[in-house]
Amino acid sequence: MSRFDSYTLFSGGAQGAEAEFGRLAEQYGLAEVNYTFEGHKIERTRGIRVLTGEELVRKDVSLTYVSKLLNRKFTNAEKMRKVLQTIMYQVESSHQVFVVGTIQEDGTVKGGTGWGAEFAKICNKDLYVFGQVKNGWFRWDSGQWSAVTDPLITETHFTGTGTRFLEENGRKAIVDLFARSFK
Hints:
There is one protein chain. By secondary structure, the chain is of the alpha/beta class. The chain has a single domain, classed as Rossmann fold (3-Layer(aba) Sandwich). The chain contains six helices and eight strands. The chain has helices spanning 17-27, 53-58, 63-70, 77-92, 113-122, 168-181; strands spanning 8-11, 31-37, 48-51, 96-101, 126-131, 136-141, 144-148, 157-162. Strands 3-2-1-8-4-5-6-7 form an eight-stranded mixed sheet, sandwiched between helices. A hairpin with a 4-residue loop joins strand 5 (126-131) and strand 6. Helix 1 runs parallel beside helix 6 and helix 4 packs across helix 5 (113-122).
């Protein structure tokens, strides 16, 4: 047992940022819960929590609403709806949310990952985004993004999510986040 075994990472286990969060959670001896649904291909096999159809319906969200909120259109509605529903479980389960992606000019985060950030805002979670393009961490505070240096995982229940297209600086940001938080 690790001295950090009271910590749990909530994620989705997908390739890229989520797989990196999971790999590090396992390395540091943290528990890991990866929300998914039947037929969804994910990279992580540890801590898989397959949501039932009934559980997914409990988190039903309007794709029209999400599209409008994020200023983009989603294709493959059925699969995307399920992905967004699993993201809601990830965020709802935690007190802190860490995202790796791209903060856009309108303040949203690019891609499906953006829903995790927006839902964290709606739920008033402690939200941090590592912007791969801007090469830095940002915290959502008082309705805007503020640059921060060296955030820490301070809550025992936290979410780690983000882009499937993890770049080297994004990977290093996650590695450094864990090293600082669990030294």
